[in-house]
Structures are given as C-alpha cells and as structure tokens.
Design brief:
Length: about 160
Amino acid sequence: MGAVAASGWVFHFLKEEVMASTFTRRQALAGSCMGAALFLAPGVACAATRFAVVSILNETRASLVLGYRWGDWAKDQWRQVNVTPGEKLFWSHKLDAINVNKAPYFYIRFDSDTSSRRYVEPWKLIGRAAVEENFDLGNKYAFRYDGPSRRYVEIFDIPG
C-alpha cells in the first residue's frame, strides 16, 4: 500500500488500484486545462467538448463486416460497414450539451473467425469526449489477429 500527502490530506491506495485505473494522460491534461481555466487564470480557455468519438483501425489482412450502433435503445438500429485491411474509421455521437461528457456505449459485432465458420462477437466500446469529429481525437481501437494462426480477429484498445 502507498500513501500520498497533499495539503494536510493523506491518500492511501493499493498498487492494484493504481494499475487498474483507466485515467489517461489526455484526460489528465483536459482536467488540468479545465482547472487552470476555472481557478488559476481567467484568460485561459479550453475547447468545449461536443462529441463522443470512437476510432477503429483494421490492422489485419482481412475484410470485416462490422455491425455497429450507439446505445441500447430499440430505436437505434444496427448498421453495417465493410472494413477493409488498413482502413481507419471513426464514429461520433453528438453530446446532449457542451462539456456534458456522457454518451451511450458504442456497440459493435463482427465475425471474428477468418475461416468459413462463423463466430460473431459483440463488443461494448467507449467514446472519448472530443471538441470535433476526428479520427485522431477518438478513443482508439484496432482489429488485430489473436494468435499466430491468424484464424481469429479481436479488437484491442490502443493506449494513448
């Protein structure tokens, strides 16, 4: 267990808690930017977030038919797109209000078996709050082979 003292407060944490955190450098910078704008310098401005963005890169040699949708609701129908090898795609969801960084999950499903058999896997992905609709600003994922046989394709989170 570790401890950090700051301004008379002591925070205790377990190593596992720190390692399990999904708090990224981008989130830390966004938070520090917001904090600076609110408390330190009234003239400092941060861009307003208006979208949640999910970005996917196909790093395989396989073309994949990808079903996708935002949210759980019946009104949100599944759509399909063919993802070719090396292709980069992104999807965005307009947030309900500026800087209200809450969006529905982004659901995908695809046949992960590259043989003639079918093995459809569903996934629940999370969009990243962004100031505009752009691949580079999204929460990034990649289709990659799972194992040396290259029979199965999985989706992996790309850190950063």
